[in-house]
Amino acid sequence: xxxxxxxxxxxxxxxxxxxxxxxxxxxxxxxxxxxxxxxxxxxxxxxxxxxxxxxxxxxxxxxxxxxxxxxxxxxxxxxxxxxxxxxxxxxxxxxxxxxxxxxxxxxxxxxxxxxxxxxxxxxxxxxxxxxxxxxxxxxxxxxxxxxxxxxxxxxxxxxxxxxxxxxxxxxxxxxxxxxxxxxxxxxxxxxxxxxxxxxxxxxxxxxxxxxxxxxxxxxxxxxxxxxxxxxxxxxxxxxxxxxxxxxxxxxxxxxxxxxxxxxxxxxxxxxxxxxxxxxxxxxxxxxxxxxxxxxxxxxxxxxxxxxxxxxxxxxxxxxxxxxxxxxxxxxxxxxxxxxxxxxxxxxxxxxxxxxxxxxxxxxxxxxxxxxxxxxxxxxxxxxxxxxxxxxxxxxxxxxxxxxxxxxxxxxxxxxxxxxxxxxxxxxxxxxxxxxxxxxxxxxxxxxxxxxxxxxxxxxxxxxxxxxxxxxxxxxxxxxxxxxxxxxxxxxxxxx
Length: 495
Known about the structure:
Blueprint: E1 12-18, H1 25-35, E2 39-45, H2 53-65, H3 79-83, E3 96-99, E4 112-117, E5 120-121, H4 124-131, E6 137-142, E7 146-152, H5 161-181, E8 192-193, H6 207-228, E9 231-238, E10 252-253, E11 260-270, E12 273-282, E13 289-296, E14 299-300, E15 304-307, E16 314-321, E17 324-331, E18 336-344, E19 348-357, E20 360-369, E21 372-380, E22 390-396, E23 404-405, E24 412-413, E25 425-427, E26 430-437, E27 445-455, E28 458-467, E29 474-483, E30 486-493
Parallel strand pairs: 1-2, 1-3, 3-4
Antiparallel strand pairs: 4-5, 4-6, 6-7, 7-8, 9-10, 9-30, 11-12, 12-13, 13-14, 13-15, 16-17, 17-18, 18-19, 20-21, 21-22, 22-23, 22-24, 25-26, 26-27, 27-28, 29-30
Helix pairs in contact: 1-5, 2-6, 4-5, 4-6
């Protein structure tokens, strides 16, 4: 017996999006319809209702602070993703148009369905409701069946705007999929009534006033988030302690000005000056660069960027070898592990080689052991796999390679002590590797693991220490490095 929800012959379906805010969730809807056998194409229109910049910035900041996925329902498509979508033909007649904007006119379709949030066709009603920390009423405006009131959406995390919007949009995607699959286009028991007018046409609320209201509400949440939300920050301490106990409460935090965060610090000491390299992420861009500052007897310098690429950089593993200073920053978003040399230390770096290419390897960390160079990294086969749990090893006879994967990769599958968290060091005659303890979430704590075996046939380690900061202000720690009596860490919390 054929499923009535997917019955009927293949149809031509049009999805109408606003180019100024092309969400990802309609692409998920299109993929589901295409799997049903329908021909789905896209049309982009200008509704004169761009997303306020404060809303965009709020979403970017939340995704950074709360480690949210980049491919969520409320993520905005970039130009390349938009260009890759199949476009509508000028003369094509469509069986169904799904107008996500709620405002498109003169659609060449037999039936038009629009999402409705709080009696407003299009997404503006959803944005307003979620900014006010309440679940919007959901409905569908159907050109044939009238208006169908469905119910109210729940917000599991009302304090996080982007995550709440993900839930609302995901639920609406399911309702639209059901409507598109429906053969009888039945209206719910709530009844049908006149189709609501798109936002901006209603007499009591002009589009400019509505956009200004959204911008004001987003700005209020943004200011609160910038002022109160936990974030990563770098801290340091001078001393000479040879211990696996980190007195993190005694470290001095690096100010970030409230417009960026710092993380992943590494330290290299030259003379009486400690050079600290770290990840810097401006909230305005969300893209990491490598920055540098110094610590000496007079204090510290202001951090400034020294390495930037078109893609995100972090975890600047910096080291000296063969009379040169080298850096391996994390560049997993480019699917590479890249080697840089200081042409002029500390602010001019040139790329020397791709040590690994076409891989998802995070936080690459090198050590020389048993006559070979070893690279430790968190590895993934697929982008959606977690980067917290799998440790991969690679080995080479020379820094530039060639680098070979360990036959047993991943050699460890354990969120408690797999992902690297800093340079390895000797302690009591043994090799110690800092590792991230992600059992309670990303960046929740640090583990110190003694390397018991490291060769081409196997790997073994034993966790010999833990650090897990837990105070009202401090919630986690995930990088530790030391050199020349200077310790550097990063902490998650209120700096």
